[in-house]
Amino acid sequence: MQITAKEIAEWLEGDLEGDAGALVDRPGKIEEGGEGTLTFLGNSKYEDFAYSTRSAVLLANKNFKPARPIAASALIRVDDVYDAIRLLLGKFGAQKPSNGQVSEKSSIHPSVQLGEAVSIGIFTVVEEGSKIGGGTILHPQVFIGENVEIGEGCILYPGVKIYHDCKIGNHCILHANVVVGGDGFGFAPQEDGTFQKIPQIGNAVIEDHVEIGANTTIDRATMGSTLIRKGAKLDNLIMVAHNVEIGANTVVAAQAGIAGSSKIGMRCRIGGQAGFVGHIEVADGTQVQAQSGVASAIKEPGRAFYGSPAIPYKNYLRSYAVFKQLPDLYKKINDLEKKLRGQ
Fold first, then answer.
1. Quick check: helix, strand or coil at residue 273?
2. pLDDT tens for residues 303-336?
3. Beta strands in 121-256 (DSSP E)
4. Considering 17, 86, 212, 255, which has the largest number of Cβ atoms within 10 A of its Cβ?
């Protein structure tokens, strides 16, 4: 694929400076560039590369004021460089549509309902009573259990496993080795010290436009449903326990863990390796810093938290400023005590 700087500027409604005919055939990092590349400047700490790295086109925000001549053949100024690069990366790396082919080496139960143009790869299994919406792509080695419903335009990458009775909405993306509907961690302690399994008879429901990263696991509910609401985005290696609800348009970074029956609100932003205890509610718009541990409910919307146990973000920073000085403060106290004893 080749596209000119002029075409890019028109498509993004940006302001073009330089060679309108500069040809772009691939995106590239501003540190590397190269002939035919489209690079972007979104963070000022990379600005020096704008003056030294050769590329066909450099994208920048409209408020960018170069200190020296840029090295790219053309500069395109846009309102939001990150949103512009999102659109362009989608153009260069667009997922090919379903080819509507079902591999002869897949196993599809005769009762399965397939919509139009469903693509099913080699060694994929779809069990009795399941429904697959039109245009959905099941890559090789996907497993779909009994009575599963998958909507239209979904992509399930190799190794995805969807257990029985679970539901996936429209236009969802599940990356390699995602597991939806495994048993929740439910065991009843016995008098003899053993644990007996509590049957997990609910399901997991994923609404429309959800994307789930590789190796993330979403447990089925003990009763009822584990819920991932519309537009949520989950990174790799996340653990979502039974009966959890994650609100619409909430984003969760890698290795986070959410214990059973907790409810995360809408439009929350959760950093990597954050953890949540069970049976709490987290208000809409909450921000949780990476590696924080949320041990109690958060009732006020739109606040930021940090630390373990998590406390309000600014309070944590002030506390940490003191904490890192504790060795010196301890020494000063000891010195003062020695002087007082000497008196």
1. coil
2. 999 999 998 988 888 888 888 888 888 888 888 8
3. 125-126, 131-132, 137-138, 143-144, 149-150, 155-156, 161-162, 167-168, 173-174, 179-182, 187-189, 195-197, 203-206, 211-212, 217-219, 225-228, 233-234, 239-240, 245-246, 251-252
4. 212
Choose among 302, 299, 292, 219: nearest CA to 261: 219
DSSP state of 44: G
Question: Within 10 A of 156 (CB to CB), how many other CB atoms are there?
Answer: 29
DSSP for residue 79 = S
Tokens of 120: 């099913």
β partners of residue 325: none
Q: Is 339 exposed, middle or buried, given 0-12, 13-18 or 19+ CB atoms closer than 10 A?
A: exposed
Q: Can you read off the two tokens belonging to residue 101?
A: 């082919």
Residue found by looking up tokens 């909430």 in the block: 250
Fold of 3-92: 3.40.1390
User: Is the dihedral angle over the CA atoms 66, 69, 73, 74 positive or is it negative?
Assistant: positive
**What is the mean predicted confidence (pLDDT) over 265-288?**
98
Number of other residues whose CB lies within 10 A of the CB of residue 124: 23
CATH, domain range 107-316: 2.160.10.10
Q: Where are the domains of the chain?
A: 3-92, 107-316
Which residues are catalytically annotated?
242
Residues 144 and 163 sit within 8 Å (Cβ to Cβ) = no
Of 235, 240, 180, 239, the closest CA to residue 213 belongs to 235
